[in-house]
């Protein structure tokens, strides 16, 4: 059995894969084979990146494969496809949780990916929220790298606030069908900064004072 996968879509979504030691099933990219579409999703429980492209995944009346989680370590060995990623590499599905391509092997994680659709809001309420800026950096890095290599991806992602609910991260340029988007969970704020520091109002020393 063979399967076609987009190198760039795997590399884009792996930015959100989990780096912790727990929840091994989040240490990769979940790939779903819909009849006319392939969907790639990764999450660490705080952010999520999801990408898609059209594909013919039908054999008779059934999709070719069940969803599979591809290990992030093997994905990170792939190289960016600068040709536009239109001719997706074909992999042979081997026993033992492996996908064999022409140049490399992808490892498949034996596990069940969570129902990520439950945390993707259908709409947002635009109620302002607080976000950990460190958690938003993967979205910016992903957009910067894949602008021009995944159709419609914009190099400046924007987030639609949703109060204490998950916010939607737009990673596409206006006028393009969304092929790549993100979700970010808000954080409860710590001590907020409501005014500038008092030391900023101190007068700078004159040259004469500095020489004393």
Give an overview in words.
- With 212 residues, this protein is of the alpha+beta class.
- It has a single domain, classed as DNA Polymerase III, subunit A, domain 2 (DNA Polymerase III, Chain A, domain 2).
- Helices cover 14% and strands 31% of the residues.
- The protein has four helices and 13 strands.
- The chain has helices at 7-13, 72-75, 133-146, 207-211; strands at 2-4, 28-34, 37-43, 47-54, 58-59, 62-63, 68-71, 90-94, 98-100, 105-109, 153-160, 167-172, 180-184.
- An eleven-stranded antiparallel beta sheet has the order 1-8-9-10-7-2-3-4-13-12-11. It has a two-stranded antiparallel sheet with strand order 5-6.
- The longest helix has 14 residues, at 133-146.
- The chain is elongated, with a radius of gyration of 22 Å.
- The termini are far apart.
């Amino acid at each position: 059995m063979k399967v076609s996968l987009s190198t760039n879509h795997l590399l884009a979504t792996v930015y959100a894969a989990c780096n912790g030691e727990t929840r091994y099933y989040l240490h990769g990219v979940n790939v779903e084979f819909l009849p006319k579409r392939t969907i790639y999703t990764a999450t660490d429980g705080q952010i999520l990146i999801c990408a898609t492209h059209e594909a013919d995944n039908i054999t008779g009346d059934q999709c070719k494969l069940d969803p599979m989680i591809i290990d992030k370590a093997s994905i990170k060995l792939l190289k960016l496809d600068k040709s536009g990623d239109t001719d997706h590499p074909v992999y042979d599905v081997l026993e033992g949780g492996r996908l064999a391509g022409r140049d490399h092997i992808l490892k498949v994680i034996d596990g069940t990916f969570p129902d990520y659709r439950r945390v993707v809001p259908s709409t947002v309420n635009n109620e302002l929220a607080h976000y950990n800026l460190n958690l938003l950096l993967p979205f910016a890095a992903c957009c910067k790298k894949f602008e021009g290599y995944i159709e419609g991806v914009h190099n400046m992602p924007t987030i639609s606030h949703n109060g204490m609910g998950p916010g939607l991260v737009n990673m596409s340029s206006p006028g393009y069908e969304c092929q790549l988007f993100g979700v970010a969970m808000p954080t409860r704020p710590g001590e907020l900064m409501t005014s500038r520091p008092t030391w900023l109002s101190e007068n700078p020393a004159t040259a004469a004072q500095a020489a004393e």
